Structures are given as structure tokens and as C-alpha cells.
């Protein structure tokens, strides 16, 4: 694995100082590490408006807690209500979990702790771990195998969703579309970050993919109509099974099927390009894509400020 140390500008570091302090005071963690960020710049001008430049930044953090109890959702809600300088996506794991992962050669924890930008440590010193010799080819094969299994499931779910749509079983179609996005995101995150995500929350999964791709753009959420459709898709995991009065019309089902199909096709292309960049691709590439439907949608190159596997 050829990692690249992450650096932050003085302005970026200052923009994270307040929330870092709040997290440290509230949760008393062992450490806080920034493992990626993505800048978004906007310009506006016109005959009736002044020229305006604006910039926002999406940061990705790992909170290393003293205990192994998972508090990730609580911590994410905490920062969502307090951070106003951009956007934060935060993962939380115990020090023991992180240390054991590094000892086993876990690529995610190794990359973040070795190459990420340390924002805080309880001791005031650099966080120290014993890093074993990296077995790049074995780890890539494991991540690729897991991604293959999830992509194959996603492909099967998409086929079933199309059949349900054709037969006008719209609730079943929506539930299956949720499964497509969930499994596809899990595959993408595992392949690019070597991280084993374990949530059904599509919003959170898509936020994690923003660390290395533009895949989330297939589900825009700026307009009220886009927000309504995404909420329907996100809630379908439980609503389709437990809400007797749940209904979805043909137009919404068609619209969501189109978006999910485009997302999955682009994701397959992104995974293919990722494997082409890796030295061990010959051992896994044929297996990963032989069972998947062809998707020709092109995607942008990953805009990543995160350690490379």
C-alpha cells in the first residue's frame, strides 16, 4: 500500500479547531484524525448581482474512543448540530478495535492512523501504533472479493426490481432499489477505503462515498422534489415491510428506478477503473465483473484527498 500523508492548510485546521475541542470535551477520546476532505467552490456573477466566490469543505474524521462501545450515530448527530463551517462525516471506533485492526493489517485503520492528519490526542503526543509489514496483494484480494459478492447481490436486486416494476409491484420495487444502493455503496467503500461499513442508512453510506468519488450526485437533494424521492428511498427499508398504509405510485417508482440504475452502472465503471489501477488486478478483475451487467456510464476521476491503498 502506497499511502500519502494528508496535509491541511492553516485555515482548514482552524476551521476544525472548535469542533475538535467540543468532541474532546464531550467524549474524552484517545484521538481524532482527519483522513480526507473535499473542497467545493462556487462562483456567481451577473448584471444585477455582485461577483461572489464561495467555498465549502466536507471533512472525514475518525474518532478513536477509549471504550469499544459504538457511539458513531450519536457522535454524527452531535457534530451535525454544531459544525457550521462545512460538512463533517465522522466514524468512531475504540482504541482496542483500531489497534487490533492495525495488527491484522487492516488497510483502513493503517492508512488513517499512519497517513491521516492528527487533530487531537489525549496525551498531547502523536498516536503511536505498531505497524506490521503490509501484505498489499492479499488485502486487495480480500477487499475485491467482498466487493464482488456485494456487487453481484446488487445486480440481482436490480434485476428483481425491474421485474417488480414491470409487474406494478411498486412497494417491492422500492425495497429492492434500496438494497441495490446499499449493497453497491458497501462494495464501493470496501474497495476504495478497505472499510467495512455496517449501516443500512443510505444517506450515511453515500456521504462516505464522497470521500473518493462523485457517486452521490446521482441522488441530488437540493430541490424539494429530489429530497422527497430520496427520503422515500431511504425509508423504504422499514416502511415497505412494516407500514401497512405505505404506497408509491408508478411515476415515483419509474423515477427512482432510473436514478438507481444510473448509479449502479456508474459505480461498476468506477470499480473497474479502480481495479485497473492496482497491481493485483489480474487475480481478481475477471471474477469481479464477469457476472455483472454491462454499464457504460462514465464517471469523473475520484477527487480524493485521502491515502491511497
Automatic annotation (TrEMBL):
SMART domains per UniProt: HEPN
Domain HEPN: 151-263
Gene3D superfamilies (UniProt xref): Nucleotidyltransferases domain 2 (1.20.120.330)
Pfam family membership, one: HEPN
Organism of this sequence: Hufsiella arboris
Domain of life the protein comes from: Bacteria
InterPro entries: HEPN_dom
Record's protein name: HEPN domain-containing protein
Amino acid at each position: 500500500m502506497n499511502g500519502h500523508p494528508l496535509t491541511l492548510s492553516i485555515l482548514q485546521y482552524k476551521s476544525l479547531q472548535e469542533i475538535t475541542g467540543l468532541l474532546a470535551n464531550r467524549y474524552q477520546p484517545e484521538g481524532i484524525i482527519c483522513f480526507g476532505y473535499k473542497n467545493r467552490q462556487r462562483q456567481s456573477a451577473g448584471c444585477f448581482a455582485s461577483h461572489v466566490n464561495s467555498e465549502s469543505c466536507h471533512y472525514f474524521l475518525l474518532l478513536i474512543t477509549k471504550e469499544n462501545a459504538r457511539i458513531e450515530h450519536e457522535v454524527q448527530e452531535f457534530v451535525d448540530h454544531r459544525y457550521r463551517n462545512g460538512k463533517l462525516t465522522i466514524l468512531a471506533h475504540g482504541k482496542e478495535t483500531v489497534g487490533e485492526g492495525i495488527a491484522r493489517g487492516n488497510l483502513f485503520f493503517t492508512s488513517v492512523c499512519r497517513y491521516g492528519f492528527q487533530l487531537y490526542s489525549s496525551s498531547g503526543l502523536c498516536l503511536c501504533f505498531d505497524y506490521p509489514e503490509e501484505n498489499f496483494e492479499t488485502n486487495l484480494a480480500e477487499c475485491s472479493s467482498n466487493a464482488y459478492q456485494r456487487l453481484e447481490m446488487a445486480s440481482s436486486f436490480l434485476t428483481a426490481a425491474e421485474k417488480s416494476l414491470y409487474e406494478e409491484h411498486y412497494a417491492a420495487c422500492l425495497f429492492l432499489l434500496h438494497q441495490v444502493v446499499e449493497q453497491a455503496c458497501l462494495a464501493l467503500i470496501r474497495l476504495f477505503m478497505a472499510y467495512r461499513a455496517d449501516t443500512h442508512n443510505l444517506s450515511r453510506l453515500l456521504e462516505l462515498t464522497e470521500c473518493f468519488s462523485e457517486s452521490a450526485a446521482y441522488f441530488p437533494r437540493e430541490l424539494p422534489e429530489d429530497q422527497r424521492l430520496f427520503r422515500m428511498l431511504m425509508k423504504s427499508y422499514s416502511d415497505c415491510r412494516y407500514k401497512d398504509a405505505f404506497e408509491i405510485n408508478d411515476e415515483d417508482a419509474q423515477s427512482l428506478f432510473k436514478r438507481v440504475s444510473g448509479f449502479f452502472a456508474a459505480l461498476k465503471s468506477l470499480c473497474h477503473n479502480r481495479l485497473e489501477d492496482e497491481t493485483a488486478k489480474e487475480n481478481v478483475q475477471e471474477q469481479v465483473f464477469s457476472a455483472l451487467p454491462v454499464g457504460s456510464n462514465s464517471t469523473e476521476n475520484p477527487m480524493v484527498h485521502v491515502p491511497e491503498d
